[in-house]
Every structure is written in structure tokens, then in C-alpha cells.
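Table S7 (text form). Paired inputs.
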Amino acid sequence: MKRILSTLLTALFVTTPALATDILVEAESFETKGGWAVDQQFMDQMGSPYLIAHGMGVPVADATTTIAVPHEGTYRVFVRTYNWTSPWHKGRGAGAFSLLINGRKLSPTLGDTGTQWMWQDAGKIALKKGKAAIRLKDLTGFDGRCDAIYLTTGDNMPPTDLSALTEMRQRLLRLPSVAPSAGTFDFVVVGGGVAGISAAVTAARLGMRVALVQDRPILGGNNSSEVRVHLGGRIETGKYPRLGGLQKEFGPTEEGNAMPAENYADHKKMEIVQREPNISLFTNYHVNKVQTEGKKIVGVIAQNTLTAQPLLFKAPLFADCTGDATVGYLAGADYKTGREAYDEFEEPLAPKQADKMTMGASVQWYAVPTKKATAFGPFNYGIEFTDESCEPIKKGEWTWETGLNRDQIGDFERIRDYGLMVVYSNWSYLKNQYLDKKDFRNERLGWVAYVAGKRESRRLLGDYVLSEQDLVKHVSHEDASFTTTWSIDLHYPDSINGIHFPDNEFKAISKQKVIYPYGVPYRCLYSRNIDNLFMAGRDISVTHIALGSVRVMRTTGMMGEVVGMAASLCKQHRASPRDIYTHYLSNLKQLMKQGVGGQGLPNNQQYNEGGILSKPPTVQ
């Protein structure tokens, strides 16, 4: 029986210690969010999502909620917020907002001071027992952020330490100490991008009861309307041409990065999952804990990004399609980050010494024409432009890439924020100071991503690690599975951009080595030390160099299909992912020949396929 779990909005819960009354309001739980959006990208670093006022310079509509006040009294009010422009600008920041309680505006402006996430003192207010109305009023439209509001009749400051803050949330929100069960499943797929959709649908069509857990309200990952990267690579090619056919059922038929939202066909991705009776879809759930026994995962715990309520997902098999390898990392799976040294795999494109450089994340954007002249800014928060250094364009897509020399997980909020900074700063310069600013007079920002499109972070290690040598020498493997067709496409900081912004480049270049279509070993799709963990997406077992080829989304979708097929065989034979290679490889090959996509559908995925060599290289 199909079940889709709806996320229920709740306001807050209250506890009353002997000497004080404490009330905690998580901003993401506001009943009406107005123009504020829930941002869950940094939950692992700060413990919860937050609300962001992403108005691209235009203040967004107020967020409102109602709380229960159990006791009359004078309450001190603290707001957990962050002055996000502080890494680049000293002084008042861009993301200012106000807090109103029962229509009274508390005196401090919030969100525009300090240098880190902190509890900002918002003053005191007298409240009567009963209900009270809370309102967040955005003042700038420039990504002000509110994590939580804490009201207390006591004298204690709320904690700043993450573990203490987690304990306070657990206590004041009355979260269960033991996560309730989400149900009974054969297979839990974590991550609802193209890889996760493909893995879940494939396994479901082959008879498995599947839970698909996604931390956003929509599916598609980088191919969703939130990030807007078009699909890349070729389907239905190589030894198993039926692989990839599934994407013809849900892949967008429009090409292009940073295009209007409808181009990314979010509804098709949701519909293909909802039509499968064997899939239970859990949107707005972020996995942040993993339970293990020995070398196996026995359960994952996911936190609802709106209510903070936990759910426990148990199954014999799991697939990490998170991109960041979150499940594998929490389970203790072996992984790598950054670039391997040449000596490790003798890859011609590898550096002599290993380092932490990765491909970066893109904050894409575009402007739209207006009938009248429109104002913007000025936005001056530490990133200075000139006529020589500015980008006189009306659209920024994949090349607007940041964080190549930063930690794509631990530093990711700063990486994303720098992407926002340069978009706003550049646009402000074009509108107000550029010599040819008349060319931008009748233009306004139409869309700027606040969910950044990430390319690389952790890569889980399987029984085989795909390298550049496999791709360029066309090394044949008996367990060849999905076919990668994209060139070895690696990104580096743009040296011209670096002249004006040394060590702070916000643009990237691509260096490509074209390959012949290559069958990637199945052994790259399961963990070498966690016995029941598959992976599909950019977190599979490859080197940094090889990731340049396999990371495009049509290719990751085919990975998902193979993982779904292998999972079905694990259920059938009570086997582990490794057993499929050692004992049931012929069965997997048969399934890959058959495919699971609809028969006779026209190939509507023939854009952005990339160039390929006409024949494989001669092996010496």
C-alpha cells in the first residue's frame, strides 16, 4: 500500500521549570512563512534549518505564527541569527529584519550584527497568559536569516554550544527520545535527486518496498527548479542500451542552465515516484543519525525539516544518493575528499601531491527585462567591482562557481554566501556605477539560487575505485554496468577572475578530456566496508579525476537504475551488494539488458549529450 507522509506544521512546545518559563520557537515551524524560505542545507553544522528572506533585494512578505504563553510575565527575548555578510564587511550587514510580538516591534534590528551564528538579545516584553502572535519582518530582501526565537522569564542565556543547543531543543520541543518507526521497508534510498529517483523507482518496479527520503520539499536535486542545472550525458548506449530509458519518463525535455522554473519539470519527477505503489515518499526529512551493528546499517534517523520530529527507517539495504555521502559518512564508511596524488593511480591529470581541492558549487542567476527603469542597491558589503573586474552580463550559470579551495561541507554556508555576495555586488555595480549602466536600466534580477549546486565533496570507496586510467585506456571489466559518456570535465578557478579577486575567485573554467563511452564497474556502487550500503550519484567510488566524467546527471540516473536492480537481487537471494558481484553477476547483467523504463518511448533526452570519441583507444 502506497503511503506518502505529509509534513505537518507545528508552532512550538513549552516547558515550565520551577523558577522560569522557557519558550522555544523554531523559525522553520512558522505557520505562515510568507516570502521566507526554509533553508536546510547546513543542518549538520548548526543543528536545524532556518528561515531565509531571499528577496533578491526586495523585502519579502512577513512570516507569522502563534504561540501559547503558559504564564503571564515579562519575557526576555533572544533570536538566533547570523550577519551573513560579516566575513567580507565590518559593520552593519545586509540581512536585517525585525521581530514583532503582538504587534509590538522589539527595538533592536536583528540579523545585521556579529560575525557568527549567535543569540541576539531582542529585549524584553510583557506577555499575558494565552496566545501571542509572532511576526518576522524582512527589511532588505537580502537573505536575512532566523533560526529560532527563545523567550524566558529567567536570567539564563540560551546555549551556543551545538550539543547543548540540541539538548535544549529536545527538551523544549518535547521531541521523543526514541524515534518512532517510519514503517517496514526492503530498501531505504536517501536523497531524491536523479540518482535517488532512479534507484527508488527501479527497485519498486522489481518488487521492493522502498522508502525514498528527501530533505527538500521537491525532487530532482541539481535538476530541480531550486538549482536549475540541466541534465547531461547520454542514455541508452554501451553494452546495456536499456539503461537510462527510465529517464525518458521523468527527465525534462527542455535544455539549459539557469532557465525558468518550468523548464525543469519538477512535477514529472514527483509524479513518477507517486505513481509507484511500492514507494513511500518522505519529503522534508534530513538524515542526521545512523544506527549500525558491526559492518551493517540497521537504521537511519531523519529529522523533519519543518517540525524537528524524528523518524526511524529500518531495512536490510540502504542507498546513499545524498551527494555528500551523508549516510556513508555517519556509518563509518571509507571515503576520500579532494585530489589524489599522481603516485596513487598514476593519473596524468592528477597533481604531484594530494590536496583538498574540489570542484565548486554554483549560485546561478538571471535578470529579466522590465518596461520601466528599476533600481537596485547599492549593495556594498566588501566585494568591490570596477569596469575592468565586473561581469557585464544578464545571466550567470555554471561558471559562477565558488569554494574550489574550501571544505564543501564544513564551509558550505560561507561558500554559498560568497556566491550570493558576488551576484548582488556585481549587479549593484552594473545598475549604479558601470560606464554602460544604461544597458541594465530596464533589467531586474529575476531569479538567484539560494540552494547552491554542488559538484563534489565526499566520495565513498567501493571494492573498485574508478580512475582516469580506466577511462582513457578503456580498461575492460567483467562487471561493467552503466556507461559514462561525458568527457573528463574538471573545473578550476578562473585565472582571469583571479587577477581581480586573488584567492577569492567566483568563476571557474572547465578543462576537458574527451573519452569513448565506458562501462563503469558495478563494484564502484557499493561500500567496501559497510556491508549493506549502495551508493549512486557523485559520491560513488571514483577518483577526483574520474568524477569529472561520471558526475553528470543522466549518468548518475543510470547508476541509480543499476543499484535498484542489484538491490532487488539482494532481496531475492538474501545477499549483500558484494555478493551480487561474486555470485549473481549474471543475474544483474540480465536485468541491465531488460531495463525497467517504459517500452517504445521516444528518446526525449538528446540535448547536452557531450562529445565522445568515435572509437576506443588502442590498448598497448
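Next pair, protein 2 of 2.
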Amino acid sequence: MKIAIAQLNPIIGDLSGNAQKILETAKQAASSGVRLLLTPELSLCGYPPRDLLLNPSFVKAMDITLKKLAQDLPPNLAVLVGTVVKNSDAHITGGKTLFNSIALLEAGKIQQYFHKRLLPTYDVFDEKRYFEPGLQANYFSLNDINIGVTICEDLWNDEEFWGKRSYAINPIADLSILGVDLIVNLSASPYTVGKQNLREAMLKHSAVNFQQPLIYTNQIGGNDDLIFDGRSFALNRQGEIICRAKGFDTDFLIVEFEETQRDLQLSSVSPVYESEDEEIWHALVLGVRDYVNKCRFSQVVLGLSGGVDSALVAAIATAALGKDNVLGILMPSPYSSEHSISDALALADNLGIKTHTLPIGELMAGFDNTLVDLFSGTEFGIAEENIQSRIRGNLLMAIANKFGHLLLSTGNKSEMAVGYCTLYGDMNGGLAVIADVPKTRVYSLCNWLNAHSNREIIPQNIITKAPSAELKPGQVDQDSLPAYEILDDILKRLIHDHQSAEQIVAAGHDSAIVNRVLKMVSIAEFKRRQAPPGLKITDRAFGTGWRMPIAKAVSSQ
């Protein structure tokens, strides 16, 4: 029996458009002799729909669209579609009003529903806000093959693999007890660096442990701050990967279940990425492309300072949207070095993007004249420095408003963590492209890009010169911050590893530096709360999964 994986890129809330994508893929599957087509979790509405699910008319429209899709599908093809189903017992049990479900569509009708059993409530996930967990193991029969159905998180509770149990049940184990021939998993699993290795290791353990072939179908695409990488795959009973879909792109794969051997046969296996930098690059390009397109923009604008952060963002935007859709703005001040301008122009020339130069010296003088009496008797400091950043932010927003462009902000994770950024200045924008990319990784990505391209995309001087905001004469970042290698290691231990100050110091860091960094992270929370959405590439980003209070005691512990 032929089974197809439809690795789709839905638009959240676009019920008719998403249904059309499923229908087109179903026709392709039918013409290839496929008997069963798999689509991702909530493929009909896109994941995550969040509070759209609180709108009863949206839920009703989803049901209507699903029934129409069932009628339109080719005959002799069964399709598993991700949707939501009303919980008819909610008024009795006091439970949530919806299930996160998979619908089996065949012969013009909805034949069966399967409900997600494990509902994640960590990091970016908040499924218990909307859904009631399913209570039963889910399977159906097709061509005398018993096929178990699981949804995303249902895979992630193997006590032997994790060394702990996060939920009371293991849906994979329950299906194995029922004696199914094959388990399919329909997922919308967000990307983080290295996550695919974990997925494949986890499912290999389950396949071998339960002697069950497994097919994992994942969504792709950028939805707000989340990026979905696809890379759907399947394993045979021996835990060998027999197919793998492309990363960060739609794909269509066919695998065959051999009835005599009761196992999956070898199919197409896309190669793994050679490095984390390559993987991150593709993730960020997809994230920018989908955010821009799904928000109905066509062009972007950004400030080009001649620094490494704006250079990387410009390169990502150009790869995502094409050189004709990226506009770079140079805004030199009296403190800007000659190489900042020449480096920015060289970058633009390498990328082939348009630029405009808007000197801000006269605007700075205007602010100084306006504030001269009020600021009389005070010394030049952060307030005056930030005026420069806010002038630039205003100019960029004016250009974005005038021409309907999306403004990309260029701050990295290291700066966002410690507040080394200016509200209503360099933080202005509709999307923070590298807000989850530490400074050291920014340099690594630039070096990878140049090596991968076999030519200089990012001018070498941008990579080698000391980073500087250039808001006063001779300024460099390390006047205010520890060296980025030190800062990023402290931030990783604090943010990702949840280490205390004592543990970070014990790892070899100076206690005064550690305490200063922890304090800076704490007091910068109000800035992060006002930042544009940032693309998530790590397991701990300053986005929907970061829920720190703003008004709190400031501690360096």
C-alpha cells in the first residue's frame, strides 16, 4: 500500500486556501496510486491558530470547510487532515470545548476522528488553554492494515528515552499493545537548532523498542515568531530511516507499506545539513520570506550601519525576497567612521540591493538646539546617544510608512538580552530577524555564508573590525559589555541552562561580570516586551515562550 506525506505550508486562518493545498496534493497522490495521504497537525487552519479558536464562527467555518473538502477529494483515496472538533461533553465535564484532532476523510465523508492525547503547556505551547485531551488510543483499518494515529506531542513521552515521564500515559505504548501494524504521527513541531537529531533519535528508539514502523509528518513555514522546518521522515521496524523530506520547503513523498513483511520499504532520503550554520540560515530565510508574504508585504527596508548585524539581516532578506525587494538606508552621523559608509556600500553592491544615504547631522543639531536649555548643566551621555538612534528609527519608519515596506530590525540576541538597544530607535521594526541569534553566532553565520557562496558576500572588514554603535567618538561595544565570547557563554548558561550566578562563576567566569550581566538581563525586560516579534531558532527565545514579569525585584542571582 502506498502512503504519501504532504509536507505543507499553511497560512493560519486561511481555511479555503489551506483546503485547496490539501486537495491539490490529494489529486497528485491519487494520480500516483497512493491509498493514504498524511497531512500535518491542524493542517486545515494552520498551527498555531491561538485565540482564533475562541471564535465560534471560525470553528464552525472549519467544520464546513472540512466537509466540503471530504466531498471534493478523489475517490479511492483516504486522507488524514488536521482540524478541531467540538467537545460535546464539555458542558457536563467542565472540560475544554475543543479537541485537537485528525479527521479521516474517505468516500466523500468524514469517517472518523482521532483526538490528541498529550497537550503541551511549556515554552511556546499553550494547548490546554483551548483543548481537552483525548482519552483513547486511536487507530483505523485500511486495506487490512491497522494504522495507529498520534498527533505531535503524543510521541514525546517515552520514559525509557527521556529517563522521566512528563505525562501519565504513553500513546505509542498504548497503540503497540493494541497490535497496530503502523503508527503515523501528524505534527506541527517548531524548529530549534539541533531538534531534528533529537526527533530522529527519539523515534528510532520507539520504532526499535515497540517494533513499530513509524511515519512522522511535519508542517513547514514561518508563522509569526515560529519557524517549522518540515523534515518529515519514516522509519522501519529496525529503526532505520527509509525516507526524509526536504528541510524548510514543501515536499511530497511516497512510502510503501509491504503487507507481507508488515514494514515500510526504502524510499527517498534527503541529506542532512552539513552544519548548524547552514540549518539556521535556511530557517531564517524561510522565516523572513513567510512573515513578509503572509503579512501581505512585498518589500522590506532596513538600516545599513556597516556593522555585522545589519549586514547579516540584509543578506538574509535578499535571499528570502530577492534583491529588488530590499532597500538599505545609510544614516551617517558626525561620529560615523569612513569605513562604516564604505563597508555598507560594499555590502549593498555584493547583494545587488538599492540604497539611499540620509545624513543625520543636521537633525542631531536640531534636537540639541531644542533641548539646550533643558539639558543645560548636564554632561553628554546616554540620552544624547539614544537621540541618534531614535532619529534613525524615525527615518526608517517614515520610509516604511510612505512606501508600504516592512521595516526589519537588526538587533541580535546578545544585545536584546542585556538591553544594549534603544527603544523607538534601533528596536523599531515589524520583524526582528536575528533577535534569537547570539552575537558570536552572527559572526559564524557570516563566515559560513562567505564560504558557502564561494565569494565575499559580507565584506571581510565588517567581520574583522571591532563592533561599535558609533554614538560617540571612538566608541566600541566592549566599552559597555564584556567580550562577546564571554557574554554569550554567560547568557547561554543563564537563559538556556537555567544556571545560577554561583554555577556560572564556578564554570570559570568572573563573579563581578556575572552579577552585572544578570542584573542587565533583569532590568531590560521592559525593552524586550516592546520589541517586534523575533524569529525563534533556539529552545529559549525572547518570544511567546518567554514569560518574565517586568515589574519585579532586580536581582543578580
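The mean pLDDT is 95.
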